[in-house]
Design goal:
By secondary structure, the protein is α/β, with parallel strands linked by helices. It has 2 domains: 152 residues, Medium-chain alcohol dehydrogenases, catalytic domain (Quinone Oxidoreductase, Chain A, domain 1, Alpha-Beta Complex); 144 residues, Rossmann fold. It is built from 12 helices and 15 strands. The strands form 3 sheets. Strands 3, 4, 5, 6, 7, 14 and 15 form a 7-stranded mixed beta sheet that branches. A 6-stranded parallel beta sheet has the order 10-9-8-11-12-13, with helices on both faces. The chain starts with a strand and ends with a strand. It is an enzyme of class 1 (oxidoreductase). Belongs to the zinc-containing alcohol dehydrogenase family. Quinone oxidoreductase subfamily. It is found in: Mitochondrion. Its EC number is 1.3.1.104.
């Protein structure tokens, strides 16, 4: 029986305090199972929250973090169809534990992707791009020329929103924090297709100066005053979607927006919400749609900053750095 390395936590807490690199025995491959060699697995906020015990989808303890990644099929069970040794696959289920060198999983929990898809694209395929795509397509009927406003525009989802919106002929107003490298950040986002890049404080004035129509859709991953600011510039009857809370500040919808502008406030969660309601077939189709956008050049994969599992402390520190323009990922040895 072969072994694999994995980052394991036996209790919830801060990842730097509770994660351990361990050698694990791999179980035999059952008739409905596959053995997968992990090629790359990114660090996402949901992974950190999982280890902390704050994320709704939790593995049983001791557990292995990692909701996302790309792997290569090494062995297939006798009753597995649709997957073969050598195929590249991504998770179709959450909390599979991708921060490992290899594992044995249910074949139904993985989805085949093209082997020539860039590793950075495949490793980051299943959370942020489909979140952006669903929020742009499934919540409000948007037409070319319509405006979307978002905060956290430098986040992974924010970058995907900008690129997908441009492909659809939508306009984006993008709120980011002021920073020492402001001009570089603005140039970076504009190169992706951003129409307006501004701060929370300048949002109203910069939107008015742009000549763009009032937004129909607001996408919030920050919370607090930033969430309120993007709500206030929505057109009457607009929709405000919260999919994150990076500031850890509560969402407090201004009462006047509810009464006088009939703004709708709602949430979005791709993993335990949309995917659970839609089912595996629709989920797989969504991932294929994202792959199509990548292949058509609508989405540019992030640059990966790679770390072996043994350097997990450095990887965690790198993933928490402010204003980074890359994705930190484990690339098992």
């Amino acid at each position: 029986m072969s072994t694999a390395k994995a980052l394991v936590f036996e209790r919830n807490g801060e990842p730097a305090d509770v994660l351990q690199l361990k050698e694990q025995q791999l179980p035999e491959v059952g008739e409905q199972d596959v053995q997968i060699q992990i090629i790359a697995a990114p660090i996402n906020p949901s992974d950190i929250n999982t280890v902390q015990g704050k994320y709704p989808l939790q593995p049983s303890l001791p557990g292995v973090p990692g909701h996302e990644g790309v792997g290569k099929v090494v062995k297939v069970g006798s009753k597995v169809s649709g997957l073969s040794a050598g195929d590249h696959v991504v998770p179709l289920a959450s909390a599979l534990g991708t921060w490992r060198s290899a594992g044995v999983f249910r074949a139904a929990d993985w989805h085949k992707v093209p082997c020539d898809l860039p590793i950075a694209a495949a490793a980051t395929l299943t959370i942020n791009p489909p979140t952006a795509l669903c929020m742009l397509e499934d919540i409000v009927q948007l037409q070319p020329g319509d405006t979307v406003v978002q905060n956290g525009a430098t986040s992974a989802v924010g970058q995907h929103v900008i690129q997908l919106a441009m492909a659809k002929g939508l306009k984006t107003v993008n709120v980011i924090r002021d920073r020492p490298d402001w001009e570089a950040a603005v140039s970076w986002l504009r190169a992706m297709g951003a129409d307006v890049v501004t701060t929370e404080q300048k949002l109203k004035a910069d939107l008015a100066a742009s000549g763009l129509p009032a937004p129909k859709l607001a996408l919030n991953c920050v919370g607090g005053s930033s969430a309120a600011a993007i709500a206030k510039v929505l057109q009457a009857g607009g929709t405000h979607v919260t999919y994150g809370a990076m500031s850890m500040q509560p969402l407090a919808p201004p009462t006047a927006l509810l009464i006088f502008k009939d703004i709708t406030f709602r949430g979005f969660w791709i993993s335990g919400g949309w995917a659970k309601r839609a089912g595996p077939a629709a989920h797989a189709a969504l991932l294929d749609k994202v792959v199509g956008h990548i292949q058509q050049g609508h989405l540019t994969p992030p640059k990966l900053q790679e770390f072996p599992l043994a350097r997990f402390s450095e990887a965690l520190e790198a993933s928490s750095a402010a204003h980074k323009q890359h994705k930190v990922a484990f690339v098992p040895e």
